[in-house]
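for the writeup, i need someone to sanity check this before i put it in the appendix. the sequnce is what the collaborator sent (i think, or maybe the updated version? ugh). structure was predicted straight from it, no edits. if anything looks off just tell me and ill rerun, i have time this weekend
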Amino acid sequence: MRYDLVIFDNDGVLVDSEPISNRLLAGYLTELGHPTSYEDSLRDYMGAAMHRVHDLVLERTGERLPGDFDDVFHGRVFAAFERELEPVAGVGDVLEKLAADGVAYCVASSGSHERIRVGHRKTGLDRWFDDARIFSSQDVGRGKPAPDLFLYAAERMGVEPDRCVVVEDSPLGVRAAVRAGMSVYGFTAMTPAAELTGATRLFGDMGELAGLLAS
């Protein structure tokens, strides 16, 4: 294994949540008078913390989102997760291999701790991630593309940044990993490879990851 720590993004990498959450986000913003398509949501918000949604709407329209926006949105997302959410195909095998080989791993997500845990409980991934392996943008204040979250995760896991590899599927996440001085493997299942500029390697099937990490 060429790395001492594997840092996973959550949405779209561990759990197949991006289609669900971006569909709901686009619908809710449109409902509030900010017309947004599913494609718009993927382009502008995929991989981002919630503050980016507030910031971009304010910047573009001069209007602030309602004070209960996050609570209403997350309520809709969690309800949809209970109905629809599945793990990313093949990710359980990757985690089993890392655990068997004694390779350290964790998750560092723009989503809240509650969102991470709800998704993991629904998909059964909670067996692989105890509290010590879960990091959220809530822990650092500034979400991706700032490097803060990845640097915080590495520090808490006791590994130097240059010995870490991040598994990401969003342009914002790739930029954050590069800024953190880490290698980054770009997962192209939902994002065109051309949009993951700066990734160390690219792959489109989670079943490939364990082999890539060992090579």
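The CA atoms of residues 92 and 125 lie 8 Å apart. The chain has a mean pLDDT of 95.
thx in advance!!
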